[in-house]
Every structure is written in structure tokens, then in C-alpha cells.
Protein 1
Amino acid sequence: MSDHATRLFIERGFEETAIADVAAASRVAKKTVTNCFARKEELALDHQLDHQEEFVAGLARTVAGRAAGESALVALRRECLAGVERQDPVIGFAGERFCRIIAESPTLTARLRDLHDQREEALARLLAEEAGVANDDFGAYAVAAQLGAAQRALFQRIMRLTLSGLPNADIVATVADDARRVFGLLEASFGDYAVRAGG
């Protein structure tokens, strides 16, 4: 279903494509589509974000799996650079056609912003839990917001460069430098925050 939906979104635009259109193209009942995907946005983002729950959990999962002696920032920088190298759709390498679908849809743009917000909240909860403070601890939320903003800015950078027509190899080189720079700027403040014991 999501393959048919993506084709329709590319051909017609996200806002102009109805769930009924996706059902007809997939040769299933409309209810079958809505049973699998509660919202039309989920159909559009399903492939690119490797299931939205996984996307939301991604930053927290990276930090939770960091090595002894590694800080949250170092773990996120390492994973971000690895994602750039492998051209991971989860960090923005979604291809020109898909990036255009998002850029031209206020609904998808808002949904993507909401998913980034949820990623930061999930990271904040993990940082608070590890520090033994309340779930709504402002310090944990402030750090998560800064670390998440770096990821969000790099995601948007990849999408803009993709839409400009730059080849992926050039995007990789540019964004790898950008990632090192942005995490370098944050390192003075957060380089020693949430270092896993044992290192």
C-alpha cells in the first residue's frame, strides 16, 4: 500500500491524494488502508522514516547504547556521522522526489516537525531517568533540545541540498563537515554531560 501511496503522492501531491485513491490503486477497501495506517501522513513517511516509532526512539536508543566513558553528545555525533556515510533515509537522505513531497505539503512538514519534537522528548526522558531526576527535569529537556536541534538542522540541510539537485556524494561530504562543526560547537557545553560510567 505504501508503495502505491508514494507513487500517487509523487504524481498528484500529498494534499491532493485521498485515502480512497490509495485504496483504489492498491485494490483494497478504504477500511483496509485505515486499519493499517491511522493517518495519511503515516503512508507518506512509512518507508522513509523506517516506521515512525523507530524514528522517534532513535536518539534515545543511540544514547542508551553508548559505550562506557562515552557522553550522550559523542554517541549522537558518532551515529550521525555513520548515518551520513551510509546515506540513511532516517537522517534525511530520502531522494529528491520524496523531499519535494514533504516540502510542498504543509501537513507533512508539520508532521515531520512533530516527530522531531517527539524524538527530543524521548531523549529527554532517557537522560532524566539515567540521572535519577524527575521525568520533566528542565536540565534534561534543555540538553535534549540542543542535541535534538543539531540533528533536526542536519536533517533539514540534507533535504535542502537534495532539492537543490546536489548529488548524494557531494551532500555526504558537505553534511559530514556540517555535523562535525555543529557537534563541535556543542561540545564545550555538553561534551561531559551524561558520560556513561566505567570509562
Protein 2
Amino acid sequence: MPATDRIAIAKLTLTDFRNYRAVTLVTGLGPVVLAGANGAGKTNCLEAVSLLTAGRGLRSLPFPELARSGGSGGWAVAAELGVAGEDMHIGTGIQLPPDGMLTPRAARTVKIDHALAKGSGALVRIRMLWLTPSMDGLFTGPAAERRRFLDRLVLSLDPGYGAAASAFERAMRQRNKALEEFDSPPMLTAIEAQMAAAAVAMAVARARAIAALSGEIEAERNRDPDSLFPWAALTLNGTLEEQAAALSEDTMRDELRDGYARALAQGRDRDRAAGRTLSGPHRSDLDVAHGPKAMPARMCSTGEQKALLVGLVLAQARLIKRAADGIAPLILLDEIAAHLDIGRREALFSSIVALNAQVWMTGTDLATFTPLRNATETQLFVVSNGTIMPANDAERAAKH
């Protein structure tokens, strides 16, 4: 795959994954459209693609739940990719152990170029972002959803962010247990120092990512002031993030770290009574507003919220491409036409062409994607009952 300006899949193979027994899909550099009836398996295919990067995939389900009903109990996803002109082979999945028992927390195996990797964190180089119907409630749902959205953005810009987030989660679990068991103050102090170091690293990375994304949104406003996708105003709502955004120099991180460690120590009795840690980056939120209307996103109409989300994802894609020296990320858009009028749909397709990225999209009607088909080398596939075939082949089969 010769292109050096994007991350793109050339071949995708699914085995016992969700409703797919065995399927192989060969694609080119351009956008990929998967069309079919509801329940045909379109989102399952996107979910498989989402497992080619770090994390738990677009639905964050326990890995054993991804296995096909009636299958072996395990599953596998394999792909040949082009990453900045370099060919890669990625394989991931789980196998049923000899005792035939898989726990809900079973980890997946990851191989890169046929060599075993230490975990999905090794896939952080495969920059990817997605938009799914479940994210339509991002602005009105719980803060945890917005934190996940934020963390995916930060990780795509700062590969070291995942390690800091994992370190914070581990230390916080240790502290919660130590509080419950009334462990010694020196032990708690040591754990809280680890928490504080990781928390400040997270807060700084988040603050920088939101500042960069806000800058990209502002630049797009200047390039296209009449865009059909309203610009978003972003605000990090969290004490550490707010303080991190105000840091004038990196040397001030020590003060921020020491201050959070003191706050943890002072809050031990409160946290012990609550049974959890009540302050830190795990409690932060991302506030989003409809810029042109100066209105909180949660108060906007469903159509306006969808347009805001699309605009945010496009801004992320542009930012990631710029941060990665012009290499466009892989983008997954599930049922993207929902709640978009014809004008915004065509504006989205124009933005996709301009990004020069491989974008995987799903929909129930191939005709929805006609403007994109006419504008670029879009690849159209029909999904039906665990099979995927090129649209032309499907049409010929239907005629006979």
C-alpha cells in the first residue's frame, strides 16, 4: 500500500467474531461503505476494526462477549494495514483456554507483524477515532462518557497518556483498599504520591489536548465561517485540569503534584466514609457548548447535537493529521446519515474527501452515499447475515 499520508486497511479478516463465522474484506485506500439492513452486522465489522488500536474498542464490551454464538468461544481479527507507507500486519483476539472457561475480564492477545506484543497499548500508533449512534447522548449523558471521549482524543495526540491513566487507576484502587483496611499513614502517603504524579500528567495532557483542539476549531472557523457544522466551545471542568491549563512552565508541575497529594491526605476520612476517592481526574468533565448560539450542547436539538458531534470528530481528525506530520487517522462513522439533512450530509462527504483519510461508514441505504461515490474512489459493500461482498457482486447476485 504505497500511500504515505494516511492509515488504511488493505485486508481485514474476521473469524468467529460476533455474527461472522469467517469473512475477508479487501479494500483500497479510499472510503469504505458498508450497507445493509439493521442487524446485518455492519457495526460488528466497525467494532472489529476498532480493536486494531489501543483500548477496548468502540463498544468497550468484555472481550469474551465478542465471540460468535455457536463458535469456538474465541475470536480473531487480523488486518494488513498501511501506516505512513509502511506495511503492517496486526492480529488480535482471544482463545478458549484448555479448561474451557473464560472470565469476563479476559485479556486479548495482540500480535504485530506476527510477534506477540505486551498488550493493546502497543497499537497506540494506529491512530483511530469513531462516531457511533450511542454517542448521540454524549452531551446529555453521564460525565464518564465525556471523559472516555476526551481520553481517546488525548491518547491519539499523546501516546504516553495511556500509561499515566493506567498508573492512576491502579494507584487509586490501591488507595481505596488501603483506606478500607486502615493501612498505615506512611503506606497511604506513598500510594498518594504515585496517584498525584499520574494525575498531574493526565491533567497536563488533557489541558494541552483541549487547547490544541480549540485552536483547530478556531482555525476552521476562519477557513469556513459558513460551515454547516457549528463550532464547539470546549471547557475542561476539573480542578487539576484548570490548574494545569494555567501552568506557565513545566517546573510548576511539582507544585501541582504536591498540592494534589496534600488534598488526598486531607481527604482520607471523607474518602474512607464514601468508599471511594472523591477528587481527581476520574471526576472531571468536558463541557461543550454550541458556539454560534452560546448554548450548552445538552440544551440543543437532536440535529444540532449530531452536527456538533460531527464537527468535533472532523476537527479531531484534522488535528491528529497535523500532529502526525500529515498522516490521516483511520475514521469509523456508524450510521452517520442519521439526523443529518441532505446539506449536512453532502458537507460531511466533502470534508471526508478533503481529509484524504480512509473512512469506514455504515448505513442502511447505498443511495445515501451517492455523492461520495461520485467524488472519490469509494468502495461499496453489502452486508447480509454475516457476509460482506462488493456492491456490484451483490447486485449481480440479486438479479440472478
